[in-house]
Each structure stands twice: as structure tokens, then as C-alpha cells.
Amino acid sequence: MLIPNRSRWIIAVFAAALAAGITINLLAQAPPAQGAAPQGPIIRPGTTVKISDHVWVIPDPNVNMVPNVGIVVGTNATLVVDTGMGPKNAETVLAEVAKINPRPPAYLVTTHFHPEHTGGATAFTAAQYVIPRIQQQDLDELEPQFIQTFSNMSPVNADLLRNVVIRKGDVIFDKEHTIDLGGVTVKLVAVGPTHTRGDTVAFVEQDRVLFSGDVVMGKNFLSYSNQSNVAAWLKAFDTLDALKPLKVVPSHRDMGDASLIASDRAVFTGVQARVKEVKAQGKTPAEMVATLRPEFQQKYADWANPNRLDGLIRAVAAE
Q: Taking the domain 5-265, which CATH number applies?
């Protein structure tokens, strides 16, 4: 059967998105009705909430490719976690920061290299960009391809990412780095390879608020990629548990407490145990996926993106 050119393009985009661990909702890309909320990966102004003494969040309204953006304010400086997709979203973030503190952010950190987290970095002209060395490597080696892939997903994305310049880090660290904002400190820890090689969490020490990136999410199966490592991800859970957070802010979906870490660990260890059992029965990786994905999808029926289980099951079987 001949496939029309447009269908070939859609299939190619979906294949690239799946490889990147991205879910596409075509309805979310439709033009908004007059007077409706903006559609697509647009950060919503006026939605910022204070969650602790020093921390505010511009929440992700469960829209694909919109991150939960963090704002941490000390007596001397302000730090922002993630930028939104492209400079237009970053300008919204900066406007929200200005409502809290008139001084522009002095520091910017990003949880990983994907364009909805780093694509607006150049808008933070007064901020030092602080990232681990491995995230800089991701930006150098992988970000151009991802910007193109994300741009191809919709006209909205293409507009947001048009002429984006990939910003290099100003302060590069290896494993850990602490930033003193005055009365509050933010500890950065590189925990990858998890979702990406350069996954980084930000822990607001005095408030015990953890920005977990895509390493921990709320009722959302984690996105396993060809850069991921099961053992490293389980070790990352140990690292995050040791911080003893009171509040956990994932990059996407709802905020919660430390139970989010426990829930994601339970999925990983549950998959490990079941893979061991079915592997002993001589099943192939494809058969393991066919057996185990429905099982875990039913067990976690209210979780999003069950298709992501496929990558985890195959990785556990391989490792």
C-alpha cells in the first residue's frame, strides 16, 4: 500500500519522538478557540504558586513539553530551574520572576538538555548558567538534532524554537555543586545516565524541596532511552532518598512528596523481578514486552505513558 507523503512525515516524527521518550498529543497542537487558553508547549503566566519559604513553581498544566519551572529566592540572589521551550517561554518565566523579586535571576540550572528545559537559556542574560560537564556534552552532541525533531512536531514548536542558539554553561561541575543564594542554598547533583546522560537534580536544602527533573515523576512511567542505565537509575533513587526531601517537583506532571521516589523505584524493581521470572521461561525480549507491559499497565492503571514500559523491560532483560 502506498503511503502519502504527509503520512510518511507523521510516521517519521512519531518514530523520532518515541526514540526521545516524548509523547505527542495531536489535539494539543490544534489552534486554540477564541478566548481559550493557549495550546501547545506554552508556559502559562499568572499561574505561579509558592510551595515553601524560598521556592515558587510555575506549574506544568499536564501539557506535553511544558516543564514545571522552579524559582528559588534568597536574600542575595534568585535561581531558576529550567527555561521552557525557547526564548518566548523564557520571557514569560522572567516576567513571573520579576513579580517575586525585581532583580533578574543570577543563576540558571537545567535538569537535562531537551529543548523544553534548555531552549530559552539565552534569554537569561544576567544569569550564570550552571550545569554538569556531561550535560554540556549532551548539549554539544545531541541538542541540535533534538531541536530539529521538536521543531518538526508542530508549527507552534517550530515558532518557539526558530533561530534558537544553544547556550554553553558558564559554570561547569562534575558531580555536585552548591549555590548560596543568601539564607538558602541549592545543591546540584548529576545523577545520570538516567533519562539522559546529563540528568541533574536541584535540592533546596533549607526547604527540603527537590527538583527531580525526569528522574522521578508523579504517576507517569519514566522515559527510558538508549542513554539510560537501570543500575544508575536505581542508584539515583538512593541518592534522592538520602536527601530526605519533603516536597518533590518533577519536570512534568503533579508535584508530591518523597513517595514519588518510592513509587518509581517500585516499578523498576517490579519489572526486574518479573523479567527474571519470564526470562527463566525462555521468553524473548519481544515476548517479555508482550507479557509484562499489560501486566504493569493494569497494576498502575492511573499512570500515564505505559508505552514507556517497553524500553525499561528490554533494558532490564539486556542488563
A: 3.60.15.10
